[in-house]
């Protein structure tokens, strides 16, 4: 099911990454405009994450390929946004390193667990979903980097949320590692 509507929405998230990054390469746009355009793009694209899952279930178009591609799209989008925010000095290097490092580590762990036939032990858990949700709220606040509706300064809120996401990132990594270790030990015997 390579070209179902849900899978096309997932592909759209991946295709949108260069657009979000590219906004900051356009010297013809002033910084507030770049921030607004990147934020709106990120929000719209992030919402397709919910929509593709909903449509896959509703239209009975869930597939193994879609289940593989969906988290890859999320990880690519978050990592690209973090690199932009790092370049703009809106996120701490250690925060970006922890989040990107966790994504690489857990992706490798899931691949390893699939190879040994134990992928269910590292299936998506609520703490991982919560981490993703907090990231998907923090990042637009940091991209926008200004007063929202003239009332809310987004950078302090985004910074607080990205630190919460970092804690959840570590927590979820520890959770998945603890679930995987008994399976790895059992296969090593």
Describe the protein.
This protein has six helices and two strands. 78% of the residues lie in helices and 2% in strands. Strands 1-2 form a two-stranded antiparallel ribbon. It is globular. The chain has a single domain (5-188), classed as CDP-alcohol phosphotransferase transmembrane (TM) domain (Four Helix Bundle (Hemerythrin (Met), subunit A), Up-down Bundle), CATH 1.20.120. Helix 5 runs antiparallel to helix 6 (154-188). The model has no long low-confidence stretch (mean pLDDT 91). With 189 residues, it is mainly α.
Integer tally of domains:
1
Biggest sheet, spatial arrangement of strands: 1-2
CATH class: Mainly Alpha
CATH topology (level 3) name: Four Helix Bundle (Hemerythrin (Met), subunit A)
Note the beta-strand portion: under 5%
CATH architectural category: Up-down Bundle
Largest sheet: 2 strands, antiparallel
How helical, in percent, are the residues? over 70%
Average of the residue pLDDT scores: 91
H/E order of the elements? HHHHHEEH
- The CATH homologous superfamily is called CDP-alcohol phosphotransferase transmembrane (TM) domain
Q: Quick one: overall form?
A: globular
Q: In a nutshell, what does this entry contain?
A:
This protein has 189 residues and is mainly alpha-helical. The protein contains six helices and two strands, in the order H-H-H-H-H-E-E-H. It has a single domain, classed as Up-down Bundle (Four Helix Bundle (Hemerythrin (Met), subunit A)).
